[in-house]
User: Which sequence fits this backbone?
């Protein structure tokens, strides 16, 4: 059973999705819609035999009325315009922008809770990388406070990320509480200009009374689950457990489909989006 899907946005994230979706047997990619007729993303979609439109979302939907789902990899402002159009046509949406119009989803934490929502949001790369660990620790024992520091290569942070740093930190911190189960959460993002560019690094601090053996095994199991759909997700070092504080170091290396390997912060978003779409396919695909 496959789900007929399309990608909105022909930038870096949309183009990386092109490769991930095209090779996924659960998803039948129809094409990509953008606004720049000479964009590299549309050119790559066209070269691979997929539809590539630059005349707006409504025109693309008119041309392809049997779509089941779209990935929106445009911008928060654009998604606010796309969402009601998609909903009116009964097309589900996985939102990779900061718009946050629909419920937040982190696949390892709450993949099945919002399958009936017409629009789900993937929060931020920081949330995708850290919430699974905090949620696992919270399930094992109370987490009174969780703080995460996500460091990404400055080259992998485009203008959208740079102009939404405040929104990033607030959304990530909130997700540590609402999805991760921490009583209080805080998030920090650092854009590192090092050359050669570094891969994404995340440091997670969780205040909990878990003993070392329980905390270590809990973290390892969470990392293994996320790595099942984000292959470059890994423990960068063994967790440190001392004085009621668990410190976890998680790295994310990109798969290199279109984005460079150092852009794990973007790759974890596209990988999470595909995992959510796979679950939709399992439940809703009709062809």
Assistant:
């Amino acid at each position: 059973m496959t789900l007929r899907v399309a990608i909105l946005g022909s930038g870096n994230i949309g183009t990386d999705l092109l490769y991930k979706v095209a090779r996924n047997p659960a998803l039948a990619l129809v094409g990509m819609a953008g606004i720049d007729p000479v964009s590299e993303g549309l050119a790559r979609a066209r070269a691979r035999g997929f539809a590539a439109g630059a005349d707006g979302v409504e025109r693309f939907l008119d041309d392809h009325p049997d779509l089941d789902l779209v990935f929106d990899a445009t911008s928060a402002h654009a998604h606010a315009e796309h969402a009601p159009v998609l909903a009116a046509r009964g097309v589900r949406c996985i939102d990779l922008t900061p718009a946050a119009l629909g419920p937040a989803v982190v696949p390892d934490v709450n993949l099945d809770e919002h399958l009936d929502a017409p629009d789900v949001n993937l929060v931020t790369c920081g949330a995708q990388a850290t919430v699974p660990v905090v949620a696992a620790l919270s399930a094992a024992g109370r987490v009174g406070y969780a703080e995460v520091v996500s460091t990404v290569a400055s080259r992998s942070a485009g203008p959208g990320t740079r102009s939404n740093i405040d929104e990033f930190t607030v959304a990530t911190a909130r997700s540590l509480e609402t999805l991760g189960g921490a009583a209080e959460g805080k998030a920090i993002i650092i854009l590192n200009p090092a050359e050669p560019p570094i891969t994404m690094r995340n440091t997670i601090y969780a205040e909990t009374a878990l003993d070392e053996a329980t905390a270590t095994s809990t973290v390892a199991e969470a990392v293994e689950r996320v790595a099942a759909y984000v292959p470059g997700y890994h423990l960068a070092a063994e967790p440190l457990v001392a004085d009621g504080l668990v410190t976890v170091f998680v790295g994310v290396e990109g798969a290199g489909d279109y984005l460079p390997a150092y852009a794990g912060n973007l790759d974890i978003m596209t990988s999470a989006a595909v995992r959510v779409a796979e679950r939709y396919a399992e439940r809703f695909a009709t062809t």
